[in-house]
Amino acid sequence: MNTPEPASTGHFIRRIIEDDLKTGKTGGRVVTRFPPEPNGPPHIGHAKSIGMNFGLAAEFGGVCHLRFDDTNPSTEDVEYVDAFQRDIRWLGFDWGQNLFYASDYYERLYTYAVELIKKGKAYVCELNTGEFKEYRGVPTRPGKESPGRTRLVEENLDIFARMRAGEFDEGRYVLRARIDMASPNLHLRDPVIYRIKKEVHHRTGAVWCIYPMYDFAHCLSDSIEKITHSICTLEFEVHRPLYDWILDALEVYHPRQIEFARLNLSYTIMSKRKLQQLVEGKQVAGWDDPRLPTLAGLRRRGYTPAAIRDFCERIGITKFNSLTDVALLEHCIRDELNKTASRVMAVLNPLRVVIDNYPEDQEEFFDAVNNPEDPTMGSRKVPFSRVIYIERDDFREQPPKKFFRLAPGQEVRLRYACYITCTSVVKDDKTGEIVELHCTYDPASRGGASPDGRKVRGTIHWVSARHAVQAEVRLYDRLFLHENPAEAEGNDFLRHLNPNSLQVVTGFLEPGLVSVNPWDRVQFERLGYFCADGVDSKPGQPVFNRIVTLKDSWGKIEKGSAG
RNA sequence: UGCCGGAUGGUGUAAUGGUAGCACAGCAGACUCUGGAUCUGCUUGUCUAGGUUCAAAUCCUAGUCCGGCAGCCA
Predict the structure, then answer these.
(1) Which CATH number fits domain A343-467: 2.40.240.10, 2.70.150.10, 2.60.200.30, 3.40.50.2000?
(2) ipTM exceeding 0.85?
C-alpha cells in the first residue's frame, strides 16, 4: 500500500476518530456505516458520505458497513437497493461481507421495544394524527401528556402484541417512547417509535404490519453492528439526544453520532423530490440522464470514479451549509482526463474547405500524437485529402484583433498536417451564408513543422471530408441557469432550467473513432472531453456525450472585448 | 420570538492562543503544433461591538445574520 494522499489535513470528524483511538474509547476499532434509505437514486451528495465513511474506515484500518435503512415500505424499492450497491462498487468501495438491512433486525427491534415497555419507557398511544399534533405542542409551548401515557405495562404489552398481530387498522395505535412532553426538543416529546403499516415490504414481504421509525431503528442498528462512529447529516443533529436516550434506556452498546453538512452543488439540485419531478416531468431522459447529479447520470456523462472521489476529498467536511462550485467538479474530471484520455480530432460544426493546390486524387497520412501528456500512448495516422472540414468558429471573414485562426489571406496550421492560407470565400447567393472556403497549402509545411522558421500562431483541428465518419454528438451543459435553483425566488426551480442544456449535433470524426468501445473517453482536440455513450452506441456507430469542455481562453478574450 | 447548530477572500476549506495558508474561480505574463496542458506572478478574507492577553480567526460577554427542528418520512 502506498501512503495516503497528503491528507487534506484533519477535518473535525477525522480528528474525533483519532482522539477516540488515542484514548482507547472504541477499543482500537473503527467501524463506520453508510446507511441509505432505498427510496431514491444515489447522487453525488451520497458520494460525499460514501467517500467519507468508507474512506475513514480504510484510513484507520477499520471497516464500513453498507446498511439499508429500510423501515418505510411504502416509499422504498429494490430498484434503489440495487442502484446503491452498483454505484458504491462503481465508485471503488467495498463493504465485503458487511451488507445489512434494518429489516434484518425487525424481530430484534421488536424485542427491544417490548423491553422498553417493560421498563415503563414506552407506551401505546391511541391519539389520532390530529390529536397527536395538538398534544405535541409547539416549540415555544410544552405539549400535553397522552392519555395512553399512564397505561399499565401489561396492557401496553398486550396492545403492542395485537398491533403486531394485525388486529388494528393503520393509525389506530402507535408505540411511543416515554420521555418528556415538555422538552424544548420536539423529538423528545414522546416520539413515535412504531407505527402500523399494512404494507408489503420489499424484503420481509407481508410478515410485518408494524414498522419501527427511523429514530428507533437507526440507533439500535448501529448498536447491533457495533458501529463506532455513526456519521450523518446536519438535520439529524436534533435527533441525537433521542439516539442517545434510546441506547441508554436499553443499556446497550452506544456508538457516537457525528453530524456534517450535506453537499450542495451549484447549478443543480439534489433533493429526491426535485430529481423525481425532473424525471417524471420528462425534463430529463431518466435517472441516468447525463445532466443529472445522480451517480448514474454522472457515469453516463463520462465522469470517472476517481474524479468523483477526488472531488469528494477536495470539498472537505464541515458543519456549515455551503454551495460548492460545480467548476471544482469539472476541474477534477479535466485533471484526470488530461492525463489519461486519447486526443482525437472531430469537427462538430463543419465548414467545408477545398485546398486548391492539393491534387484531387491524392491522400496521405499524418502522424498524430495520442496524448502529449503521456508519450507511452503512442501515435496514430490521420488521413488527409483535398477537401476537409474545419470548425466554423475557426474562420472569420472579418477577424477581430488577436484572432489567430483562419481568415481571408491569413495562414493557419492544420494540426499535425500543414499550413493553409485562405484565398476565397464562397457564399450562398440567397442567404449570404458561407458555404465553402478555398485555400492553398504550403507543401513544405507537411507534418506541421515550420519550413523556414516562420511563426504561425494558430493551429486548428480538421477532418478529411472523404474519410470522415459521422456520429451523433450530444453537447451537454448545466441543467440550470440559476446558481442555486433550489433556493430561487418563487420556489419554482423549473423556471430556471437551461433550455440549451442539451444540443444534439452530427459530428465529423477522424475515421479511427468508429472502433471506440462504449464508455471510452477521448478528448476532441480543442473542444472538450467526450465519452462514447454506454447505452446508445452501437458497434461501428458510436454516440458521444460531452463530459466537459476544455478551458476556452479565447472565448473569454472575445467576450471581454465585446462587452 | 423555544431548542440545537453555524459564521474565515467570489467559491470550497486550513490554521485550536504565536507570520491568516491551500485549492477552485478570476486577472496578468511565460511557454506551446490544442487559445488545451504546464510554469510564474497578482488581487480579494477572519460577521459586529466590547473584553481577557505581550499576543485572539481561536478564549469571554453582548449583538447581528444564516441553517435545522412542530411526518405515524429518513
Answers:
(1) 2.40.240.10
(2) yes
